[in-house]
Design brief:
Strand content: 25-35%
Pfam family, one: BURP
Keywords: Signal
Organism: Hevea brasiliensis
Distance between the termini: 36 Å
Protein name: BURP domain-containing protein
Largest sheet: 8 strands, antiparallel
InterPro entries: BURP, BURP_dom
Length: about 300
């Protein structure tokens, strides 16, 4: 997907810390989830230290060096969902078996929107009725593609829950951690796809060792927005699995997939039904998660 860089930059570091110090969000993670490893997919979204930023002070006197860097994904000319013909995204639960072959691509973008520190994220509006102020804050023209993306992301976060769903949009790593703790406590695992080869589409064979990691999980999807926003939700009648894979070139991967036993409340026009030729309320539907999606399960 094409990206372009706005003229607003955001990178931060604690002004008073040494060059090897942990970032504030990382410190918060370690203090709240001391026994939980942070997936690389989240580590990649932490802002690196920046030594030549503008120094600002928050209300409590904490000093930061800040500059704003915002990436907006380009919208295509069509709103239709494009599914590559070969890549496996949705599949039936009955196909979740060793020796099954699926075509996958563990994609990773070189241009990503990173987390803002909570102190900054909380000062930026995030609601539909504040959209004009948001667009003005980021110097975005209301008629632009970037404005469409911002509007769509916020509306998705504000949309009513579907039956059996509980959702929350986290605008910082700290708020993401807080949401998970309110649901599961501090004894949790955070899981994401792991692959030796990224950005390469190839056939993968499912190996022995498929593991059901939970039937009570929080799935957090990274949204398209100026900075890192995660749409987190729990859905009834779902199970999450880790799936060991071996690529045609011999490279290994471990993918996360979620299987939905009850699809009766889904939109009949959902792309999964079109691909699998099934109907709402039919057989369990499974799908692989994107590489920037995080699954949380209680220990």
């Amino acid at each position: 997907m094409e990206f372009h860089l706005l003229s607003i930059f955001v990178l931060f570091c604690l002004a008073l810390r040494g060059s090897n110090a942990s970032l504030p969000a990382e410190v918060y993670w370690k203090s709240m989830l001391p026994n939980t490893s942070m997936p690389k997919a989240l580590q990649d979204l932490l802002q690196p230290e920046f030594k030549n930023g503008i120094s600002i002070s928050t209300a409590d006197g904490t000093q930061f060096q800040v500059r704003y860097t915002v990436y907006w994904p380009e919208l295509g000319k069509s709103n239709k969902v494009f599914i590559p013909s070969k890549t496996t995204i949705f599949f039936l639960y009955d196909d979740l078996l060793p020796h099954k072959i699926m075509t996958l691509n563990f994609t990773k973008s070189n241009k990503i929107s990173n987390f803002l520190p909570r102190k900054i994220a909380e000062t930026i509006p995030f609601s539909s009725n504040m959209l004009p102020q948001i667009l003005k804050y980021f110097s975005i023209k209301p008629s632009s593609k970037e404005a469409q993306i911002a509007k769509r992301t916020i509306e998705d976060c504000e949309a009513p829950n579907i039956r059996g769903e509980n959702k929350y949009c986290a605008t910082s790593l700290e708020s993401l951690v807080d949401f998970v703790i309110t649901k599961f406590g501090k004894k949790v695992q955070a899981l994401a796809n792991e692959a030796e080869k990224e950005n390469r589409e190839q056939e993968y064979t499912i190996l022995k060792g498929i593991k059901m990691i939970g039937d009570n999980q929080i799935v957090c999807h990274k949204q398209r927005y100026a900075y890192a926003v995660f749409y987190c939700h729990t859905i009834n009648a779902t199970k999450a699995y880790t799936i060991p894979l071996e690529g045609l070139d011999g490279s290994k991967a471990k993918a996360i997939a979620v299987c939905h036993a009850d699809t009766s409340a889904w939109n009949p026009k959902h792309i999964a039904f079109q691909i699998l030729n099934v109907k709402p309320g039919g057989p369990p539907v499974c799908h692989f998660l994107n590489s920037d999606t995080i699954v949380w399960v209680p220990n």
